[in-house]
């Protein structure tokens, strides 16, 4: 069976209630599909009207009344707020693989008045409430997905056409009080979480939701060697001095075993001064390989500029004290020293394989967002390349 592209839209209410992580975790772990792109949107009236016009479909197994509810929901809840005209946030996820459309739709699920349980995303996060006369009094679909490959293509091409205009790193979509000063910070969910389909990326997003911050940007990202070198450049000099004492002692013990006599402490210090920077450079090479898939030393000039083989999810969070709040939930660099309930304690393995990265200052957040090209629109290009046109 040929590969398909499938989309899933996380609604404004699901984003507002911080259900993003749980939805993403189910989609990745239960479909086994590859997450190839993700993008935030603040849909315009024009996008919403075009999308609403093709929501109802004879090919959709869902009851026609439910489809009409979804169409009305799209018009009233996904477009700009009627009173303020402030645009709503939605997240669009793009998956690729065999039978992708059916797999995504199965996990998202269909509404039924008599259905009970929590098997699907809509079972858990959606709501369809009726009164004693079976009249709908509240409806929240939680997530939207296409019923078949043909409709997935049409709807993906529509969202891709609006990707530059309505999507990307969102500005001005969150309101604050006059005393609140919002910050932005970058989170990278690191490559160790994508070795096989797992709920870990979504579970980590659930942890970050405790901060009360808002996701205003998301990107599936493969860091090049050159980008990794620039991104982690500030830690290189730190690494070149960090290992002096440890490496000096290791070298001293190794030489004493070989030479069969004891070395003075001054020699230990000198060994550390000589070998410590080399150990730091080696550790830096390991970081580059971990993040990009290849070390600096074995990459040609051309290869250094190409997207790497390792995948991350880049998230931009916004809100008051964003940097501090995210860092507190993340925990210290060494997972063994991280407190219970922190991301690195729960998901990290060691100092390098420590689950996620978060900016340590607003200035570094700006620098890091520039390096990963946070405003770059990959969503549109992936859809165009797959279908040959928009």
What attributes characterize this protein structure?
single chain, alpha+beta, Alpha-Beta Plaits, four-stranded antiparallel beta sheet
Describe this structure in words.
- The structure is a single chain.
- With 390 residues, the protein is α+β, with helices and mostly antiparallel strands.
- It has three domains: 1-168 and 375-390, Nucleoside diphosphate kinase-like domain (Alpha-Beta Plaits, 2-Layer Sandwich); 175-222 and 311-373, Alpha-Beta Plaits, CATH 3.30.70.141; 233-298, no CATH class.
- The protein has 17 helices and ten strands.
- The protein has helices at 12-16, 20-31, 45-53, 64-78, 100-108, 121-125, 149-161, 163-166, 200-208, 225-231, 233-242, 244-259, 265-292, 322-330, 343-347, 362-371, 378-387, and strands at 3-10, 34-41, 90-98, 127-130, 136-140, 143-144, 182-189, 214-221, 312-320, 356-358.
- The strands form three sheets. A four-stranded antiparallel sheet has the order 2-3-1-6, with helices on both faces.
- β4 (127-130) and β5 form a beta hairpin.
- α2 packs antiparallel against α9 (200-208), α3 (45-53) packs antiparallel against α4 (64-78) and α11 (233-242) packs antiparallel against α13.
- The mean pLDDT is 92.
**CATH superfamily placement of the largest domain:** Nucleoside diphosphate kinase-like domain
- Unreliable sequence segments: none
CATH topology of the largest domain: Alpha-Beta Plaits
> How many structural domains can be distinguished in the coordinates?
3
Specify the overall morphology: elongated
**Could you state the order of secondary-structure elements as H and E?**
EHHEHHEHHEEEHHEHEHHHHEHHEHH
Q: Tell me the strand order in the biggest sheet.
A: 2-3-1-6
Structural class estimated from helices and strands: alpha+beta
Q: Tell me the strand percentage band.
A: 15-25%
Look at the structure and give the mean pLDDT: 92
CATH architecture of the largest domain: 2-Layer Sandwich
Rg (C-alpha, Å): 24 Å
Helix amount: 40-55%
Q: How does the major sheet shape up? A: 4 strands, antiparallel
CATH class of the largest domain, named: Alpha Beta
Total number of strands: 10
Count, helices: 17
């Amino acid at each position: 069976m040929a590969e398909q592209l499938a989309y899933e839209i996380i609604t404004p209410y699901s984003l507002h209630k911080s259900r993003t992580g749980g939805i993403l975790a189910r989609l990745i772990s239960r479909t086994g599909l590859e997450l190839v792109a993700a993008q935030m949107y603040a849909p315009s009236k024009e996008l919403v009207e075009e999308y609403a016009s093709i929501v109802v479909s004879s090919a959709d197994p869902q009851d026609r009344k439910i489809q009409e509810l979804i169409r009305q929901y799209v018009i009233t809840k996904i477009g700009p707020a009627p009173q303020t005209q402030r645009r709503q946030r939605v997240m669009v996820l793009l998956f690729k693989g065999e039978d992708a459309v059916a797999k995504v739709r199965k996990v998202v699920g269909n509404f039924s008045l008599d259905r009970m349980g929590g098997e699907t995303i809509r079972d858990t996060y959606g709501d369809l409430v009726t009164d004693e006369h079976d009249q709908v009094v509240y409806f929240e679909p939680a997530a939207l997905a296409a019923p078949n490959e043909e409709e997935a293509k049409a709807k993906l091409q529509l969202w891709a056409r609006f990707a530059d205009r309505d999507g990307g790193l969102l500005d001005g979509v969150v309101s604050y009080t006059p005393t609140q000063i919002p910050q932005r910070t970058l989170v990278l969910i690191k490559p160790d979480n994508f070795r096989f389909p797992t709920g870990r990326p979504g579970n980590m997003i659930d942890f970050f939701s405790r901060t009360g911050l808002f996701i205003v940007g998301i990107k599936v990202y493969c860091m090049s060697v050159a980008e990794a070198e620039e991104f982690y450049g500030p830690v290189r000099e730190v690494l070149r001095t960090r290992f002096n004492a440890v490496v000096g002692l290791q070298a001293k013990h190794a030489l004493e075993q070989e030479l069969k006599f004891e070395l003075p402490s001054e020699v230990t210090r000198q060994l550390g001064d000589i070998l410590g920077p080399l150990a730091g450079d080696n550790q830096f090479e390991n970081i580059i390989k971990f993040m990009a898939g290849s070390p600096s030393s074995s990459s040609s000039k051309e290869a250094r500029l190409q997207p790497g083989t390792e995948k991350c999810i880049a998230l931009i969070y916004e809100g008051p004290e964003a940097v501090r709040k995210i860092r507190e939930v993340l925990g210290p660099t060494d997972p063994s020293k991280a407190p219970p309930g922190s991301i690195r304690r729960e998901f990290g393995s060691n100092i390098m394989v420590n689950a996620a990265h978060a900016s340590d200052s607003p200035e570094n957040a700006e620098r890091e967002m520039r390096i990963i090209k946070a405003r770059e629109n990959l969503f549109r290009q992936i859809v165009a390349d797959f279908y040959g046109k928009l």
